[in-house]
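input
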Amino acid sequence: MKLPLSWLRDFVSIDAPVEEISRRLSYAGLVVENVEKLAPGFAGVFAARVLHVEKHPNADRLNLCDVDAGQKGQFKVVCGAPNVKAGMVAPLALVGAQLGKQPPLEAAVIRGVRSEGMLCSERELGLSQDHAAILALGADAPLGGDVAAYLHLDDTVLDVEVTPNRGDCLSVLGLAREVAALFAARLRAPRLRAAHWAGSHDGARFSFSVSIEATDLCPRYAALSMTGIKIGPSPAWLKRRLELCGMRALNNVVDATNYVMLELGQPLHAFDFGKIAGGRIIVRRAGDTREFVTLDDVPRALDPNDLLIADSDKPLAIAGVMGGLNSEVGDSTATILLESAYFEPMTIARTARRLGLRSEASYRFERGIDRAGQVGALIRAADLIRRIARGREASPIADFEPRTAEPREIALDLGAMESLLGAAIPPAVARSRLKSLGAQVSTRAKGVLAVVPPSFRSDLVEQADLIEEVARLGGLEDIPALLPERVAALARVNREREFLKGTREVMLGCGLTEAATIAFIAPADNARFSGLQAAPRPVKVTNPLSAELSELRVSLMPGLIASLRFNLNREARAFHAFEMGKTFRMDGDVATEHHHLAAVSYGAFALSAIGEHSVMAGFFSIKGILETYLEAIGILPRVAFKALESADAPFLHPGRSAIVTLDDAPIGLIGELHPAEAMRLDLNDPCAVYELDMSSLIAYGFSPRKTFQPPPKYPAIRRDLALVLDRNFPVDMVVKTIRECGASLLESVEVFDVYEGTAVAAGKKSVALACRYRAKDRTLTDEEVNRIHAVLVEQARTRLGAELRQ
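output
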């Protein structure tokens, strides 16, 4: 919001320098991002009234003008502008005036007549490139007064960042109210009184009716018809103020509505009354209306829930966003209907975002306007239009409020305020600060205030909001930095938080980097990476930021894959990351959340010595990371990796993927990306991934920390074992079975070879394992190990249905 200080001083008088105003506003939460100091490009130019105009005796295109510059005196000026006429007020540059970079103005003799000054156009004053006519000042311009001061050319403009919850500060009056409260100054709020309307002979012609069908979206609608309008340019002072606030002047009626919006924060709209069928205004949803042409001559596709302003035949405007071309105020307009309404913020925000059509009006409606400011804004706009467009009221103000806003009372416990702020604020000071915001304050009980927020502060809804306001107006920097006096107590252990912390430590210890991706995702990515369930129903976003972010993720995989591609595009050679986050899916008609853990590994996993190959990411490297994690939880012996059907996870490699089960219940997926998917992502090396549903793991927690043990004193004895099994028999099952069959002296079982070839039967494979035996208290003998190993071999053969390979 751009704030000209000259406009601010219409409402509050302060002597503080601009730096102090900026500092206090910034500390109060309204950060001043920029201060622009403006200076006029001329000096010695004053307002003067043209008294008499006559033709130049020696030139057909020149006129002799007698002008009155008040205390500066009366002068004769030669002027060639076609619009000069008696009675108009124009800028007069006297002898010695400085116009831009030109030399000081001197008296000149033009065609035998001495000119004692010059009536100036906008180009000569540096306001624009318009040189076709002299600049017409308003009738209220003081004769002899400095034109630069009248046009607010010597001004300072603050660019204030207004947070989304402070819609009340999107106006000059709103910011003036803040400045008055911060400097303990008196606010000169405008006195808005409707002009007396005693009826007129043409009142019946300009009567209208209003019907609000969508009362849930438009709880209040006020309107006023005005006639006798003379469309034309606005006065220079009004155009200048609009320009200082970043708006372009159009014509006097539209400029008046924009001026009131900037001044009071209430958006207005003017319809050409003659284009309203039957003089009937209907506030309704779009329904079956599918398209509407807005003021910028662009057809807009409508949603059935968009709010429209219509007559009995057609839509006239998209409520709160933009008017229609079919009811535009033009040069021939003589009668208008002024609209001032309150529209619910969410419906305006939804429509404006979907259409990609942001206007100054929608920007204010989205953030919430004064619920009670509609009639006052109409009064102010009508007063302006009477002054600058010669209009007059053709009807009284019609105010319709089918859904009233009840005042809300908030209890403020002064003791709770001191506890929350850590500073004691006297009750009288707190009361004074709240009143300076426009709130009504009374005493409810001892130490408790009853506060009724003003209608323009929709963000004040609970006690904490009031406490923040009291602290903010006093200066948050003045609250001392002290430790709380209360006794700190240890918080109860949160098992879920501790589990996530332990998971993070293990993943980081395995060399992965934690990533955090957004939960919004494109429907195509949800379909491509379906997660742990086959064809889950995704959760649709009701009000998406874009079509590419219209669903909530069913898997963490798309976000990690996108991060991988992002890093590779920036010349990274490897990427190893994990993410802990929530996934979402529909269970029946209910949207559910699930804690997941996912990881992606691509490229060199560990640096190698010079001249040697690096350890590359792949199925077994990421399986090792996952097994390390499961072992830390203490459930690795109960976890199995089973072959995965291609239809269950089509994005994974059919021969290098598995389903992770816990006690035969599936809890995750692991594998390398399918070659087609890797080609789509332009990956040159294998990319290994896994994803787990942590919901079933949190209950286990992490095992106690491992303790260091001294190396064994006695040697181990190795015995090898080669079993011939079916080709598709899982080797993992072989290892687990041998461990279960082994005695307490069996220390480890490792696979060191898997053979398929002519030495074994077709459809079979040979699995060679190394079994190590060790005792903690003695050296084992060969006879003892042979006896134990023979028993183990026999049990393994029996349970696995295997044969010994000779």
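quick obs: The chain has a mean pLDDT of 89.
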